[in-house]
Amino acid sequence: MEPSQIALSTLTPGFADPVHDTQAVFRTLLDALARPGTHGAIGEVVPMLPELRHARAEPAAFAALLTLCDYTTPVWLAQPDTALASALRFHTGAPLVDKTEQAAFAYIHDAATLPALESFASGSAESPEQAATLLIRVDALSGGEPVTLSGPGILDTETISPLGLPAQFWRDRATLVPLFPCGVDCYLVCGTSVIGLPRTTHAKVN
């Protein structure tokens, strides 16, 4: 259903201050990838209550999609939802695609349904920027199995313990890391917080 067929009052609101909020969220997202494993705070720049819950999107993920997407960036939603789909079309103009390999950005609200990472675009040696960026909701950013990160942006090592990621995620990442500059970049999101996992980061499950 197109946004024109839906009452504006039912659409999930976007940024209250689009210019300022977009800049703030973009800086946070860049910093999260530049310093893998650290927790970034998106802040309460998008609604936290009924509308966003109905859209089945974490606040950090919705803010990231509003910031990163426009009419040139196809988006794949693991759980196609009228509320979130309509909100993205209305606020960003981003086209929604049916196939993972077509997506520039993807949002997976339920990590248990995460497809194999190799199914997403990983770019090429000539055009690595054409790789997909994934936003994956987790139950919590701590409390899970420890994972040790190393690589660019990490002084020695960084340990994270996200809760709710399938074990296959880490195995898939391990097969893609050697393919650099190809690969996929990932954000783990929970509430208003985010952890960046760029394609350059090596991860060892402890």
Task: Describe the structure in your own words.
This protein is α/β, with parallel strands linked by helices. It has one domain (40-205): Bacterial phosphonate metabolism protein PhnH (Rossmann fold, 3-Layer(aba) Sandwich), CATH 3.40.50.11310. The chain has helices spanning 18-34, 50-54, 59-68, 82-92, 167-176, and strands spanning 39-41, 75-77, 105-108, 133-137, 147-150, 158-160, 185-190, 193-197, 202-205. The strands form two sheets. The protein has a six-stranded mixed beta sheet. Helix 1 packs across helix 3 (59-68). One of its GO terms (biological process) is organic phosphonate metabolic process. InterPro entries: PhnH-like_sp, Phosphonate_metab_PhnH. GO terms for molecular function: lyase activity. This is Phosphonate C-P lyase system protein PhnH.
Short description:
The chain is α/β, with parallel strands linked by helices and 206 residues long.
Oligomeric state: single chain
Helix content: 25-40%
Helix-and-strand structural type = alpha/beta
Number of strands: 9
* H and E order: HEHHEHEEEEHEEE
Mean pLDDT: 86
Radius of gyration: 16 Å
Q: Do you know the CATH topology?
A: Rossmann fold
Tell me the fraction of residues in β-strands, as a range.
15-25%
Strands ordered across the widest β-sheet? 1-8-7-4-3-2
So how many helices? 5
Spell out the key features of this protein.
disordered N terminus, Rossmann fold, 6-stranded mixed β-sheet, 18% strand, lyase, PhnH-like_sp, 3-stranded antiparallel β-sheet, Phosphonate_metab_PhnH, lyase activity, alpha/beta, 5 helices, Phosphonate C-P lyase system protein PhnH, 206 residues
